[in-house]
Amino acid sequence: MDVPAPAGRGPPPHRTANALHLAMPRLADTRAATVIGRTGLYLFALSVWLSTAGAYVGLGLMLCAGIASRGFRDGLRRDPMVLLAAAFAGFTLLYALWAAHTTSESHAMLWDDTWKWLRLFLFFILVAWWLTGDDRRVGAVLLLSLAGLLVKILLGIQAAGPSALWSGARIGFGLPVNSVGLFCATALLGLLVLAPRAWRSSGQRGRRGAIVRFIAWGCALILVLQAFITVQSRDAWIATLIVFPPVFALGLAASLRRNPGAPWLRLGASLGLAAVLIGTVTIRNLDTITERIQAEHSSWRALLAGDFENVPDGSIGYRVQLIEFGLQKWMQRPLFGWGPHSYRTLIEQADDAELRKLPHLHNAYVETLLTFGLAGALFFLGLMGGLCATLVRAWRSGRLATDYALFLSGALGLQLIWCLASFGINQVTWNFYFAMLAGTIYSYRMRLTDGQSDGNPGRV
Predict the structure, then answer these.
(1) Is residue 458 part of a domain?
(2) How does residue 427 score in pLDDT terms, banded at 50, 70 and 90?
(3) I need a surface site. Which of 8, 120, 320, 409 has the fewest CB within 10 A?
(4) Mutual angle of helices 364-397 and 402-418, in 10-degree steps
(5) Distance between CA 104 and CA 92 in Å, rounded?
(6) Range of 216's domain?
(7) CB 114 within 8 A of CB 93
(8) How far apart are CA 318 and CA 322, in angstroms?
(9) What per-residue confidence (pLDDT) applies to 260?
């Protein structure tokens, strides 16, 4: 016969044991999901530039671990960016189904192009969820992605031969050459803006570790800068000249405002060393830089004069013609555009045979209008607006440190400027890069959802 528990003493022992028995598997599942999700996150970060298969495995692990946890499902169901992604997916899939019934183009190519657009909205949400705006996790992910880029550059040097770095030829280190310029520019920004965070030390052991980190930082800076110059991506060079000065000025002002008694000697020595390293590598490659810029001298002169009709044929001239062509076609269907995979069909109508050989419009904004029209462009405005709003709110609330805010906003600026003369959605590597950038930014909104239970990676 069961003896009733005294008042205020809780449930009978056997009921407590049953409750613990039921709760323990769920807790174990939650912990397992967290381990699997974080493993996928770190694998993805390391593989962004190093291995397409590894990056997809990482995304798969994050997705499976998320689905297994109730917090993932409950938290994302109400998230505005998830709702935006779902709406875009529905819009794109319906458009693709309509196009499949009205075009004679290969259906395999149509669906392949559709997937390229969809993954832009899908990948970064997984990264954001598993990062949850945790600074230590963000730092680990950025470090792993930098390590992957450095290994990829070294493998590219080994394949092409060290002499290729100074031969004047463009090499992409096994990646799309124009995109590598953007990747390296982002890495340079991070190495410079986040350098003080990497150099911090405490105690004797901390100082020894700081020396090792300082040497590693210098080697990484030289290697990335050399690769940045070797790829000869004018798009990335211009974006760097526009973005870097205000980011560094704001960073210096914030540092002095936060610590008015900052050691000027240490600060000056750090800035001086960075300037010496950058200046040395730049001077070593001055001929390559000068030749690359002067190769389109007449085109630059026509652009600056506003004489777009007389820009000579070449890299810049073809971009101008492609933008004009894309805008003309978009005006024929301004509201909904021409649909996924429409570019290949439309470019065949171009008069210039050289234009018909080019794989895209070399302008992400015009390409978006051509494909989805004004209606589709609203989704991308929502995406960019959401990321910018997250940055501002997270920084103002103190959830986002100033150096991370400067790096992420600068990286987003590099991306937006680069898209004026390039198009990366058709490259899986660029999609992984964007997932890392957008996911890191949006993770600071995920930090607001601390009320999540079961599987919230920030609470285990």
Answers:
(1) no
(2) confident
(3) 8
(4) 170
(5) 19
(6) 20-446
(7) yes
(8) 6
(9) 58
